[in-house]
Amino acid sequence: MTGDLFAPSRGRPRVVIVGGGFGGLRVARGLRHARADVVVIDRVNHHLFQPLLYQVATALLPPGDIAPPLRQILADQANTSVLLGEVTAVDPATRTVRADTADGADRAVPYDYLVIAAGTTDNYFGHDDWAAAAPGMKTLYQAIGLRSRLLHAFEAAAAAPDPGTRREWLTFAVVGAGPTGVELAGQLAALARRTLRREFHDLDPTHLRIVVVDAGHHVLAPFPQQLRRHTQRQLRRLGIEIVLGHTATAVDDTGLTVAPADSHDGSRRISARTVVWAAGVKPVPLAARLAAATNAATDHKGRVVVGDDCALPGHPDVFAIGDIANVHDLPGIAEPAIQQGRYVAELIKHRLGHRPHPGPFRYRDLGIMATISPFDAVADIRGLRLHGPLGKAAWAGVHLGFLVGWANRAAVLATWGWALGTRRRRQQLILTEATG
To answer: Whole-model pTM above 0.85?
Structure first.
């Protein structure tokens, strides 16, 4: 693509895509041969494969294997440009978005078609002050910080002379028993018991405590009962405590207080120097600004409600997809975003005169899955329910298939094999401001 990104398009229509995640990237790649100029705007310079983010946080994968740069991915698309910046506003009247760009300026970017795929952020349910004590895991920066935090806890435990303090450092609390919480807890158990126990000779493995807390009454609530029971049983075999039907009522640097979800009576304290938040997400603030600018409705989760064509009512040139949008009330996972992105690309190509009309958006449910341990995962693939090694094989195949780039797929597969064979992890780095 040539020309000024900040000047009105001339000759060819311009498609502006906000967000380079699963949905946004699928739109951009779907338009690679379109007679249009495509601009991808993102706050970070990379695409992020979020389903494997917890493996960066637990020192299994290097960050680059799940976060290829957007410019690298789209380098061969002559009609596509990448702009590093954060979109702060949408103006349908002038058909522009405002973005804080990498040079510190606030600029307007004109569009003919706009696709908002900006994703989500952590939801602390009115307690944003807990974020410092209980970090989430939505970005690569957060995952790298969490890796340092987890590894530092073991170093602090090894240095602590007091047994009580040592136990606090060796207690890890995960708030949320969905796929993210379950997968993080399982990998943390593997990190501690398969890798670090051979390196920290002064630590007693029996002092390790991992606690998963959730307000619901099941782990992996969206999964079939058979797979939920298997997951809960396997987590307990790994020594992971599961506290269901409880919500966090207070979080600080030394732990959290939990109470029954239907009552604040019977609260109890969990002393843990490391608390990780995996209890929920909400759309980024841009969703509310988009809704206000277009008079669109939002649902109880703050997602923008769109039509069967993924466009905002009354604004056929503005689309919202992925976690930021309510499209048939689909869950906020990768596959709906990918399918929505593919659909919107086809619809835009139709409007450009390249394709027949794709009809209304129809989602094809390919199933859900989550990993528990190095040799166990659960999967519900269109009614086929797998667990154990078969579930793990299905989980690994799907995740490798969704990764961007054959080099990354090969690197991740090699790292998994090496870690399974040696019980070692090569990313055990604590990064601080003093790191040289």
So the answer is: yes
Digit-coded pLDDT (tens) for 116-159: 999 999 999 999 999 999 999 999 999 999 999 999 999 999 99
H helix or E strand, kind and range, residue 231: helix 225-237
What integer pLDDT is reported at residue 266 of this predicted model? 84
Rounded Cα distance, 147 and 151, in Å: 6
What confidence score (pLDDT) does residue 283 get?
A: 95
d(Cα 284, Cα 323) in Å, to the nearest integer?
9
Gap between the Cα atoms of 376 and 388, Å rounded: 4
Q: Which fold does the domain 128-279 belong to in CATH?
A: FAD/NAD(P)-binding domain (3.50.50)
Query: How far apart are alpha carbons 14 and 114 in whole angstroms?
Result: 9
| 243-247 contacts at long range (C-beta below 8 A, 24 or more positions apart) | 243/211, 243/212, 243/213, 243/214, 243/270, 244/177, 244/214, 244/216, 244/217, 244/218, 244/219, 245/214, 245/215, 245/216, 245/217, 246/213, 246/214, 246/215, 247/213, 247/215
Which residues are tagged catalytic? 183
**pLDDT tens digits, 375-386:** 999 999 988 999
Architecture of domain 14-122+282-351: 3-Layer(bba) Sandwich (3.50)
Q: How many CA atoms lie within 13 A of 272 on its CB side?
A: 26
- Mean pLDDT score, 299-311: 96
Helix (H, G, I), strand (E, B) or coil at 62: coil
Report domain extents, the chain: 14-122+282-351, 128-279
Q: Report the percentage of the chain scoring pLDDT > 70.
A: 98
pLDDT for the residue numbered 4: 77
Q: What letters, b where the CB count within 10 A reaches 16 and e where it falls short, cover 375-386?
A: ebbbbbeeeeeb
Mean pLDDT of 214-219: 96
Of 321, 314, 316, 285, which Cα lies nearest the Cα of 302?
285
Rounded Cα–Cα distance for residues 113 and 115 (Å): 7
End-to-end distance of the chain based on CA atoms, in angstroms?
A: 39
Asked if 14-122+282-351 and 128-279 have one fold, the answer is yes
Is residue 27 within 8 Å of residue 345, measured between CB atoms? yes
- How high is the mean pLDDT of the chain? 94
